[in-house]
Amino acid sequence: MSLSSIIRISAGYTGLWVLMMAFAPAMVADDLFGVELTAPLQAQMQLTAAAVASITSMLWMAPSWAPDNIGKFARLAAIVWIVFALLNTYLMYSGTMITNGQNYSTPVIMVVIAALLWMKSKD
Q1: How far apart are the C-alpha atoms of 23 and 46, rounded to whole Å?
Q2: Per-residue DSSP letter, 32
Q3: Which of 34-61 are b and which e, b meaning 16 or more Cβ less than 10 Å from the residue's Cβ?
Q4: Any alpha helices (H) in 66-100, and if so which ranges?
C-alpha cells in the first residue's frame, strides 16, 4: 500500500464523519454523547462538518500537490491523528462521550491510520 493511498484512506474516513455530521447530526449526537440534538448543537456540528470537509479536501489532494514532500506531510498527519485519538479517549474516560464498542473503535482506527502514515513516511 502506498503512502498516497493511506493518505486518501484517511481522507475517506474523515469524509464519513463530514457526511454523518452534516446529514445525520441527531444520530451522531445520540451515539457519541447520548444527548438530543438541539438547534445550537446542530449548527455547531454543521460548522464542524464544513471545517472537517476542508481538511478532508487537503488530505485527498496532498499526494498530488506535494509528491516530493509527502513523507513530511504524512508525519504531520500522523501526529494530528494521534492527537484526535487521545482527545477521543479522554472524552470517553471523562464521561463526556458514551463508552461503547463503537466509540472505542474510533480512536483505534485513528491510531492505525497514524501508525500506517508514520511507518510509510519513512520508506
Answers
A1: 9
A2: I
A3: eeebeeebbeebeebbeebbebbeebbe
A4: 70-93
Yes or no: say if 108 and 1 are a contact pair by the CB < 8 Å rule: no
Contact 62, 70 (CB under 8 A): yes
Amino acid (1-letter code) at residue 113: I
Instruction: Walk along the chain (123 residues) and give the pLDDT tens digit of each residue.
Output: 899 999 999 999 999 999 999 999 999 999 989 999 999 999 999 999 999 999 999 999 999 998 889 999 999 999 999 999 999 999 999 999 999 998 999 999 999 999 999 999 987
Grid cell for residue 105? 473503535
Q: Is 81 exposed, middle or buried (0-12, 13-18, 19+ CB in 10 A)?
A: buried
Domain map of the chain by residue range? 3-121
